[in-house]
Design brief:
The structure is a homodimer of 437-residue chains.
Chain A lengths: L1 E5 L23 E2 L5 E2 L1 H12 L4 E7 L3 H8 L4 E5 L5 H14 L8 E6 L2 E3 L1 H16 L4 E6 L9 E5 L5 E8 L4 H9 L3 E10 H9 L7 H6 L9 H4 L7 E6 L3 E3 L3 H6 L5 E2 L2 E3 L4 E7 L5 E4 L2 E8 L2 E6 L7 H5 L7 E4 L2 E9 L2 E8 L7 E3 L4 E8 L2 E5 L2 E5 L4 E4 L5 E5 L3 E8 L9 E3 L3
Parallel strand pairs in A: 1-4, 1-6, 4-5, 8-12, 14-16, 15-17, 16-18
Antiparallel strand pairs in A: 2-3, 6-11, 7-13, 8-11, 9-10, 9-11, 10-12, 18-19, 20-21, 21-22, 22-29, 23-30, 24-27, 24-29, 25-26, 25-28
Helix pairs in contact in A: 3-6
Chain lengths: 437, 437
């Protein structure tokens, strides 16, 4: 069984936890039985592994997300990297070509595509298996999951089935409706379109040829930026006559806003927080080390991270996007394949960051044109390579690197250091990478 | 004219801006005409200087407050340092002895005592002059300011005057009453006791002899810790028969809670903040560099500093104290006589801080037993002295100091540096000071 997880974009609606480089699906906010927290990505991947042990899982993701995926899921998951964002049709064609040409999946094998971040239980993943089996049968070219609506939502598209059977032909798609229309659809048996569907691999690659001229994955990858932005629903699903929908009535939540996300939280607070007893329906997600004290609030979400602080009425929080668009700020925290960094201080001609390298990992070997750097190791052990010279380091060791000097650090254990960048033009783009000599 | 300003204690009720080492009167939150912000201390001192140009001003303050006072008011103001906190009677006796024995004030001269942090206008300071003149006349031993009440407050003590004249004999004092009693007092012409009074210097020193055996300021200072904790009202004012009250009907506000403080703010936001248009009566005081976004809130105060984040209904904010008492945290920001520091990162065996030295200032020459330190200069110019060796420093220079090594830095211009402290037992108390060699 082949499962493709579509990893969506930046998701400013969960600011300050999500931002241009950290998508909401990577935020560790969901409490596990052992008390630790996992991200939506980790939860979904764990659930897949528990239900469909042998499934081959491939994530279609942007370049910026690769580090977070490797960090959170390890190396065994496949990643089809999108060179840039081009909507769902190009993304699904690219990952389909990746499955055929890189992973060697046969064109007759079924593939199930679903978003990476639904908040669901195990029955959902059992359903994915049934979708896959149904697609394999070949009764239809495309088999969709139709989610039994729980309220007349204006946020989702609707699928109109031919009849009320568990598997039915699809008559029609409806765009996000107004509430009265949604009520009408539901009375007539419509289902939510949650973006989950299965097909035999060859089908999508054939459909792709109608719009894109390419022979294999590598050619498609290299011309990806030139492709038209178009959704899979519009380019394929809505044009297809041989199309079925399977009814799913289990739990399905889209944790796309603070309102829905806080509903899925097991506790009112993640991180340091005190709520006094006159607070009601207040949720706090605090990624900073600062204590948060909330008093006398109702129906409010508070979230603090290195990017900023949100305090919002829960209903109002769904209107967050234009305000966040107006906040232009340096990236203050980032997960990397080797660990993470956090900006601690920004001055005109200096930038101070805390770097954490995971055990056994290393930075790229690199140099900067326009800045000097000073590292002070504060914990852990490893070694540096500076202009080809290797040197062991331990807490208290200081490494100074002038502009132009090539450098990296390799962590034997988890290793933390304070990096001071100094220069008149400090920019994240000022970085040349080299192979290790 | 001698004015004594009593500088009160820690004031956790304005957490996270005030804390154990920063009292509320030093928070720069009041907007001036030129757009910059001043603290309550700066505002009061500026107002005194504008009304009573030649007044001699002495501040009775704790040791921990001396740096902030020097930083905010400069060197011309007198400071009577209390070795520890012993309530208002010992504090007023100590500053009175300081005036006589250190500043050489004659025993017949009048002295006016008032709190350092009332939010008042110039008429209040004109009133201080009249109090002083009245005390000098000698009609009474003690002349109080009685503030015309604007509502039946349960937070203040009341003064019951003999009659309704502008200057009247005091019949009685009343402790903070319940509301109905306060209403009754006000109907009968009672006035608020704002802790403002005048006396001839010799009077208080005579009264002091009844309770404390001392000959001069230095003896009193050295035995200060052994003195009984007792208020001036209880020890003196309530025992005195020759006592008058002068009526004051101008603006007088005590900015002791978030509720009253936000009423005195000229704008809704100090620091980085966005309020959407569904917010009403929301105030933000943000000392961090993080943007704050507030949506759909009503009657709420938000404050963020290096110590923590408060989000509170304004009414509820007056109940803050027990919650803040429960937050035990490292001091994250401090003003020093030479500048300031901010804690940026805390690990088990390291602490990283940003140090800002004001132009022309220097740290004490000192060493640490149990920690090494690394300085990276990020801006400004000056020189270090390390174990007696002097060396000029500029941005990018790194200074490493092992435990035991004596060191200081002198700033020619404003100078900023990142200090990494390394050791198994990092403590603010681990500091030995030395004279410069």
């Amino acid at each position: 069984m082949n499962i493709v997880l579509l990893s969506g974009g930046s998701g400013k609606r969960l600011w300050p936890l999500s931002n241009d480089i950290r998508s909401k699906q990577f935020i560790k906010i969901l409490k596990q039985k052992d008390g630790s927290y996992e991200s939506m990505v980790q939860r979904v991947y764990r659930q897949i592994r528990s239900v469909n042990k042998d499934a081959s899982v491939t994530i279609a993701a942007s370049r910026a997300q690769v580090s977070s995926i490797r960090n959170q899921l390890g190396g065994s998951v496949g990643i089809s990297v999108e060179p840039c964002r081009r909507d769902t049709f190009p993304a699904i064609v690219l990952v389909s070509a990746y499955l055929r040409d890189v992973q060697g999946v046969d064109s007759n094998e079924p593939v199930v595509v679903c978003p990476i971040d639904p908040f669901v239980e195990e029955d959902y993943f059992q359903m994915l298996k049934r979708l896959s089996d149904q697609a394999e049968k070949g009764e239809a070219n495309l088999v969709l999951m139709g989610i039994a609506p729980t309220y007349p939502s204006e946020k989702y598209g609707y699928i109109i089935p031919e009849d009320a059977k568990e598997i039915s032909r699809v008559l029609e798609f409806k765009e996000k409706p107004v509430k009265t229309a949604a009520e009408e659809y539901i009375r007539n048996g419509a289902l939510w379109n949650g973006g989950v569907f299965a097909y035999r691999l060859g089908y999508v690659l054939e459909q792709a040829q109608k719009r894109i001229d390419f022979t294999d994955y590598h050619e498609l990858f290299s011309k990806y930026e030139t492709l038209e932005k178009i959704s899979f629903d519009y380019a394929v699903a809505e044009q297809e006559d041989q199309i079925q929908v399977m009814r799913f009535a289990g739990q399905w939540k889209d944790l796309g806003t603070w309102n829905t996300l806080t509903e899925a939280m097991e506790e009112n607070c993640v991180g340091k927080a005190i709520l006094n007893d006159t607070c009601s329906n207040v949720h706090v997600v605090n990624e900073t080390g600062l204590p948060i004290l909330a008093m006398g609030l109702h129906d409010v979400v508070i979230s603090a991270s290195a990017e900023g602080i949100l305090v919002s009425d829960k209903e109002q929080s769904s209107y967050i996007k234009p305000f966040v668009d107006g906040i232009t700020q340096q990236v203050m925290f980032a997960e990397k394949s080797w660990g993470s960094f956090r900006v601690m201080d920004v001055e005109e001609e200096s930038l101070t960051i805390k770097v954490t390298l995971n055990s056994g990992h290393r930075m790229n070997y690199h140099s900067h044109k326009n800045r000097d750097e000073v590292w002070t190791v504060i914990s852990g052990r490893g070694y540096t390579i500076v202009d080809g010279m290797q040197q062991e380091v331990a807490p208290g060791d200081v490494i100074t690197m002038e502009a132009g000097c090539r450098h990296t650090i390799v962590a034997w254990t988890e290793l933390k250091l304070i990096e001071v960048q100094l220069g008149k033009e400090i920019s994240a783009d000022d970085k040349q990478k080299y192979p290790l000599e």
